[in-house]
């Protein structure tokens, strides 16, 4: 079994149909290849000096870029991509935020990451609505050999971990493509048997009432928050989950930033 990929002209309902059925959706070439390579150059500049992972989950031959929105503006447009935000809203409803966005460079010699569900960091009894969706942007061509993400299609419907003989697919896609996958889908990074690293950014979104995986309010200083587009500021946490989760001194966070009088 291979993956099903849509092309860049895909409509939102085609993407959400794939997410609902398989738990993931790939849109090939959503941004131009050259643009993806240029973003990769900037992320690798930021990864320079970042050590490889500290444990089996992070990967001992994998480098991760955390605190992205405090370090670069290069992923802002992708984070706000209308097709992505439409699909995120379909999965999480209207109130969502960024959770743990991470640049992930799987280096040569990396082994398969354990299969896991991104939502498992939250101790919420099942069944429950989707809590998380992750959006993996490719800045290199993702191949089975260089560590393309492994997915168990349809496993978002099962509570137990998938049996060892479950059908697995590899999210092979050219640089500039994007793969969305719901937080209940079993997946993991692939092994890299090549001599080149594979770089992507997993931009993770979560329901607006959850604690964000990374604390963006300490990552992005107020002076920078004030300069960001409102929608990005909201996604970083300057927002209210109705009726009043997330207030500062009883008011909208933008008021604390001196941006509005709400
Ligand atoms: O890099 C990948 O392909 C996936 C990594 C992943 O699932 C994770 O680190 O949680």
Account of the protein in words:
It is a single chain. The protein has 262 residues and is an alpha+beta fold. It has two domains: 5-219, Jelly Rolls; 221-262, no CATH class. The protein is 23% helix and 18% strand. The protein contains eight helices and eleven strands. Strands 1, 2, 3, 4, 5, 6, 9 and 11 form an eight-stranded mixed sheet that branches. The chain has a three-stranded antiparallel sheet with strand order 8-7-10, with no helix packed on it. Strand 1, helix 1 (12-22) and strand 2 form a beta-alpha-beta unit. Helix 1 packs across helix 4 (82-92). The chain is globular and about 55 Å long. Bound molecules: 2-oxoglutaric acid (AKG). 2-oxoglutaric acid is lined by residues 104, 106, 113, 149, 187-189, 200.
Q: What is the overall shape?
A: globular
The CATH class designation of the largest domain is Mainly Beta
Radius of gyration: 18 Å
The overall pLDDT, averaged over residues, is 96
Stretches with pLDDT under 50, minimum 5 residues = none
How many discrete structural domains?
2
């Amino acid at each position: 079994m291979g993956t099903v990929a849509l092309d860049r002209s895909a409509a939102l309902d085609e993407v959400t149909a794939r997410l609902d059925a398989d738990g993931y959706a790939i849109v090939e070439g959503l941004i131009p290849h050259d643009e993806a390579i240029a973003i990769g150059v900037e992320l690798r500049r930021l990864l320079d000096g970042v050590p490889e992972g500290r444990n089996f989950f992070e990967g001992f031959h994998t480098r991760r870029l955390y605190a992205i929105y405090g370090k670069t503006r290069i992923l802002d447009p992708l984070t706000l991509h209308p097709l992505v935000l439409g699909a995120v809203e379909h999965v999480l409803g209207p109130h969502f935020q960024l959770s743990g966005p991470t640049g992930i460079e799987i280096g040569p010699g990396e082994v398969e990451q354990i299969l896991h569900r991104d939502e498992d960091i939250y101790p919420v009894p099942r069944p429950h609505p989707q809590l998380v969706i992750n959006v993996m942007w490719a800045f290199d061509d993702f191949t089975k050999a260089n560590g393309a993400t492994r997915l168990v299609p349809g496993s978002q419907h099962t509570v137990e971990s998938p049996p060892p003989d479950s059908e697995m697919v590899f999210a092979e896609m050219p640089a500039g493509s994007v793969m969305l996958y719901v937080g209940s889908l079993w997946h993991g990074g692939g092994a890299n048997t090549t001599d080149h690293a594979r770089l992507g950014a997993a931009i993770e979104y979560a329901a607006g009432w959850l604690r964000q995986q990374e604390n963006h309010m300490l990552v992005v200083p107020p002076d920078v928050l004030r300069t960001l587009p409102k929608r990005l500021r909201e996604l970083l946490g300057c927002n209210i989950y109705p009726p009043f989760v997330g207030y500062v001194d009883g008011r909208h966070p933008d008021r604390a930033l001196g941006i509005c009088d709400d």
